[in-house]
Specification:
Number of domains: 2
Order of helices and strands: EEEHEEHEHEEHEEHE
Largest sheet: 5 strands, antiparallel
Radius of gyration: 23 Å
Number of helices: 5
Strand order of the largest sheet: 2-3-6-4-5
Mean pLDDT: 91
Strand content: 35-45%
């Protein structure tokens, strides 16, 4: 089975959406995030913006490789699994990652019941993602090349022929170049450098 080497994410935060149900207001937001610190920052900003709201419920998923996804859901005082999980369900439904969805609720005086809450949070999360620009990106791996300066021309020729992206380089007597390579092209790239015997290749960990 070939490992999937693309993922879907957001290019920028969604526009604010509003879903109303029995006088309660649900404001939905979707953000691109890469770390838990990013999540924390967005939550803090929304709590300042909506300081008089009752609940700030959210779900997020981090990681681009399917076997490395991390996710978290938070009902923030709503009944168990009535908010965070319905929001996370939309992240799964839209197949996006590195994303945070927050739904801010202003209570309108009428209880919605667990079923009503699930529908409201799911709908607000869905609307936030529908108002987002979703893009497909490739999953890349970094490869480090170490070689002597005398082999520079041979190495650069392969890089040019294969149209490879250099992430960083240090060109001295002993040279180091780090490439960013799409997962499914790694084997081809490693093979391309094999004829240059003095090049040391290393796949860097994420």
């Amino acid at each position: 089975m070939i490992e999937k080497d693309t993922y879907k994410t957001l290019t920028k935060p969604s526009t604010e959406i509003l879903f109303k149900e029995k006088n309660s207001k649900f404001f939905g937001y979707a953000f691109p995030v890469k770390t838990e610190d990013d999540v924390k920052t967005h939550l803090e900003d929304l709590k300042k913006q909506h300081h008089s709201a009752r609940h700030w419920c959210y779900a997020y998923q981090l990681g681009v490789k399917e076997n490395q996804h991390q996710f978290r859901v938070n009902d923030d005082g709503e009944p168990n699994n009535s908010a965070g999980m319905p929001i996370y369900g939309q992240i799964q439904s839209f197949e996006v990652t590195n994303v945070l969805i927050v739904v801010v609720r202003y209570f309108g005086g009428v209880k919605l019941g667990v079923g009503g809450l699930i529908t409201a949070y799911k709908t607000a999360a869905q609307m936030a993602l529908e108002h987002s620009k979703i893009v497909t990106k490739t999953i890349n791996q970094e490869i480090e090349l170490k070689f002597e300066y005398k082999d520079m021309n041979k190495v650069m020729r392969v890089i040019k022929e294969k149209n490879l992206k250099i992430v960083r380089q240090s060109l001295e007597l002993t040279c180091t170049i780090v490439l960013s390579v799409r997962l499914k092209k790694i084997k081809t790239v490693l093979t391309a450098f094999e004829p240059i015997f003095d090049v040391q290749l290393k796949i860097l960990d994420d």
